[in-house]
Amino acid sequence: MISQRLRGRPLVTSTLALACAVSLLGGTAHAVSPATAPAAAAAAGHPPHTGRGSVVSATPVAQWDADRVRAHLAQANIEADRVRHGVRAHRIVYRTIDITGRPTTASQLVVVPANGVRDLRVVSWLHGTTVFRGDVASMNERSTDRAAAFLFAGAGHAVSAPDYLGLGEGPGFHPYGHPEGTVSAAVDALRATRAFVRRDGRDLERRVLISGFSQGGPATMMLGRALHRGADRYFRPGALAPVGGPFDLSGFEAAAADDRVVRSSLYLAYFATAWQRMYGLYGTPSEVFRAPYDTVVETLFDGHHRSSEVAAALPATSRELFTPEFLDRVRHPTGELRQQLRALDTTCDWRPDVPVRIFHSPTDADVAFTHAEHCAEQLTANGVEHEVEEVLGDHNGSVRSALPEVVRVFGRAPR
Fold this sequence. Notes:
Layout: E1 5-7, H1 38-43, E2 55-64, H2 66-75, E3 87-97, E4 103-113, E5 119-126, H3 144-154, E6 158-162, H4 179-198, E7 203-213, H5 216-228, E8 236-243, H6 249-257, H7 264-279, H8 297-300, H9 307-313, H10 318-321, H11 324-331, H12 335-345, E9 357-360, H13 370-381, E10 387-390, H14 398-412
Parallel strand pairs: 5-6, 5-7, 7-8, 9-10
Antiparallel strand pairs: 1-10, 2-3, 3-4, 4-6
Helix pairs in contact: 2-3, 3-14, 4-5, 6-7, 6-11
């Protein structure tokens, strides 16, 4: 892999990958009792068994030795030289809250190394844009996100890979791009991971190693900021390594409106339908979508259609799918739309006190390299020492090259 590291500067070159074929062992779900009583749990800095982050159920999905982990990562063209351990993986359903603050549940993949270590460093892996609820790490054995979790666990880390709200086995719709919902699901996923591993007499270290791809890039910075500011009494950030993230969402959506983004119509339609559910973006679908798409687009983004089905049902360009008025509104947002977008334009605008490395590919046609520069500039303005690393490949391909580098970064992170 060709890479370039530039400390404290907004230039970068990074390439990550997508796709990896992994087949897992099935299992049956069983209820999980907490390892400690509620009072002891609260004293230890994690919620009691009836609260947020408590485990509802656990389903074993894989138990592999190290050779099998390495073989499948190699088959997926992901460097596996840091894999030293076998892994055990479970799909965990846990308690959390929805974007209105009401109790709900969400799911995640939890993977632990089979190494006997009692105090485990933990990685929070945050996935990219996912249309179909069954494509997340906890559900899809061929998911790149599951492969990423196996890589980190094989290197000796416990892994919390949340599906986010409304995906996997979580009820309702996915609140795509909702800052508070992203953070609450990820924080509660960490709490549930800790509760789960404590069942076996193990525990998680306080400092969380956080990484994520695409949508998971801004999510990495938001989760890090929340933990930095005390969102949880126990966990704190340990290192941040976002990959291929759209850190300037206003610019990304404007580029999609101008068809300067690969799959622009799909990205923008997902954005429009999700934000309609969350914020009331429009009155009727015909205000946003051209006929005949105005009668079908909202149903396509219900979480039960695969991305290939959605793409096949939509025109290739935003110009063909959306009304001129809506495209102009996206290019020049005002009012509440501008305010909500700004929250996702400033995910790097804070002062982390832990190592930060941004990975991005200069040939990414989905999320332009300028997004890495945008994040780096905000960090620089806050006096944050950081590194930007260029990796090879397109948007999805950048994951394969970045993941081994992230493992190395995390291996050097201070405890």
